Amino acid sequence: MDRTAPAQEIARTAEQCRNWGRWGDDDVLGTLNFIDDAKRLEAARLVRTGEIHSLAQAFDTNGPQKGWRRRTNPVHTMTDTGADAENGTQGFPNGMGGADDVIAMPLQCSTQWDGLGHIFDRGKAWNGRRAGVTVTSDGDLVTGIQTAAANLVSRGVLLDLGRVLQGEIGADYPELPDGFAITEAHLEAAIDRQGESARVGRGDILLIRTGQYARTRRDGWGDYAGGPAPGLSFTTAPWLHRTEVAAVATDTWGFEVRPNEFDDAFQPLHQVVIPNMGLFIGEMWNLESLAEACAAERRYDFLLSAPPLPITGAVGSPINPVALR
Predict the structure, then answer these.
(1) Rounded to an integer, what distance in angstroms lies between the CA atom of residue 129 and that of residue 122?
(2) pTM of the full structure
(3) Which of 8, 24, 77, 310 could lock 146 by a disulfide, CB 3.0 to 4.6 Å apart?
(4) Whole-number pLDDT of residue 1
(5) What does DSSP say about strands 153-160 and 100-104: parallel, antiparallel, or unpaired?
(6) Which residue in 224, 275, 301 sits closest to 17, CA to CA?
(7) How many CB atoms lie within 10 A of CB 287?
(8) Where are the alpha helices (DSSP H) in the chain?
């Protein structure tokens, strides 16, 4: 990889990993096509104890966002309260009272999916469509996140890079330092060390724990939203393509290593895997309780349910992913 030639490297890797036309000209699901009935049945058979883990961060004003590109933390407002009921101002008969609330937030302010209309490559959206007619002021007219509402249930696999590499990097905690680039060799080492239940293949939803989220809960948010972070190396794009995973999610803000590996680029791995590969990316997931359970039992696969909200035309969605073991 030539770090001084980002445009050349992005174009070459995009061509190598491109799935345009693989599922037809009208496709809106990209790599979610790898999740079929057999894969869902395989995932269901992984449930042994009924143990459940929510993989979501909190949706509240104490989140990591600092306003970059108008991304703010959620604002929750009560429109009816118990005090209104006590005061009899709600207009209900016979002593009836209630509470109501609203929330205002960017769709990508906490645990979320990036949809296929989120990132473009040189003016092209997923499957080679023109970006300008695919996503307009009316939203994503083709691959809106609602098209994936029933598809993100599959076998989940956790690769706990923080724990696997802790000894090698000499960390005090099971977490990777900011700026650590996770390579294909690191991913394969994690699979080998974690064992058969960590194998990764077609239709799986891959979860990668770096440990950065755990560090923020210990030390404060800092620059979690957009700052330096461990993450996937740009060089992992061919591995993600070859393994035919349906989706990938991490416990970091941006999925890939930050600072990025090129001298002049912004999120180049996004630029390859979303519009060219058709890969769904999850960010800001809370993998801590799941990682502890997987490490204790030495079992790293599970049924994962992570459907987006069917928000018509949206290019991303907040979620509450659930792992069932």
Answers:
(1) 11
(2) 0.97
(3) 310
(4) 85
(5) unpaired
(6) 275
(7) 25
(8) 6-17, 37-44, 82-86, 131-134, 161-164, 166-169, 184-194, 212-219, 237-243, 268-272, 288-297
